[in-house]
Structure formats: structure tokens, C-alpha cells
Fold:
Amino acid sequence: MTGRLEPTFERLKREGRTGLVAFVTTGFPSIEATLEAVPALVEGGADIIELGVPFSDPIGEGPTIQRASFAALESGVTTEVCLDVLRKLRAAGLDVPVILMGYYNPIIAYGIEAYCRDAAEAGADGFIVVDLPPEESGPLQKACEANGLSIIYLLAPTSTDERVRQVAKLASGFIYCLSIAGVTGARDELPESLPAFVERVRKSSGLPIAVGFGISQRKHFEAVGRIAEAAVIGSAIVDLMDRTDPSQIRAKVKEYAEVVTGRRGATA
Structure:
């Protein structure tokens, strides 16, 4: 487990609260917006940041993040740009864990060893690689271990017990459980089967569990907090940034994080 992830989850446990993992698409709606939104989310209560690395075929994403990825690519956001944004965030004082979330093709194109080395140097704590099954993760796993990085593996409600055990053996940092068998996107209700799924994963791993896909409201955050260590919110934040005047993005995302985590006494 990397240097920032373990203490973060230990602190959450001590404080008796649910962690917020907040996702933004790097460079959407602009680089400046990313540089403003990330620290504002942390100020509002985010404990871990996922920086989305735009990709042309984001098969795990719903319409919101697909659109954001496409727009970021159109404006010239590359893997190198994402790493540069992370460097700037760290230089500006960002001290929470940062996970780079994306797809395997850009990592292969960049070079697996080079990507891990440069990501660690930029201040990353690990990766979520949506389309990388554990059976094929050996080369990246080896390069991550050499650079003190975690691979955060995804498990779906449809994952077999064998797959859960396999991921539990390889995982570090935390395990990301999808609330649904589908793509990202805000939804009104979480499935009734979610607690049983999380419990099934917990039997195979002592790592913290984060639940994502479909989480957008305070009631979702509270529900996840009863069964897992953290909740992941992405599409709702990306959508908020998309519809907010650039001058208001910092204030709006901070307020959203405060409402979802309960720091601000409104209903999300």
C-alpha cells in the first residue's frame, strides 16, 4: 500500500466517518477548471481524488464522462498533460491520495515502466485501469510495485467468488466495488443487493472497500457508509462542472462535497 492511502483510511476509521473519493475528468471543462476544482473538492470534504485520464473508447463510462473525455481529448489533453496537471496540483499543496483512472491502451502507448515511473514522480498513488482484467495485469503490477504504486481493482456484482479471491490476492490500497453491473452515471436509488455483494468481497480481503457507480446524493453516501469505507462520486461532479459558469466552479464543487458528506446541512 502506498504512502498516502493507508494513513487516509486509518484516519477515516479513527474519525468514524465515510471517505469521499471524488472523480474529475482531467482537462474538462478546462485545465484551469481541474486545477481549481480538485483543491476545492478536498476543502469540501473529499479524502481521495481520482483524476480521469481521457480515452477515446471509455467503455465503462456513461454519457456524462464519455462527453467529458471526448471534449478533453478534443482540446488536446494527453496522458502527459494529465501528469503535468498532477504535478501542478502537488506543487500547489495537494496532499491527499490521487488515483489516475483510465484505460490500458494509453498506458501501453506511453510505456508501462515509463508511465509508472513518471506517475510516481508526479505524485500519483496508484491507478484504476477499467479495462485491465487481473489475469493480464502482471506487467503493470510489477512496474507499480517497483514504484510504490497501487492498482485499484474493480469488482462488479456479477464477479464470481473465484474472481473476488483473485483480486483480493493482487489488490493494494483499496478495492473498488461497482454498485451495479453497468456504466457510470448518477442514479436515484442504489440496488438492494449491494450490502450482500460488499460483504462477499469483505470475506476475501481485509482491504478497505470503496463503492462507486451511481452515487450522487447525500442519501447514497450515507447508505454506502453503512457497508463500506468510502463512496466514489464522479458523474455528478463532472456534470456539475459542465453546467457551472467557470468563475463559480470552485465554490460550487466545494459546496457539493460539503452537502454530500454532511458538512453542510442541506439535502443533495
Summary: The radius of gyration is 17 Å. The domain at 5-15+27-257 is CATH 3.20.20.70 (TIM Barrel).
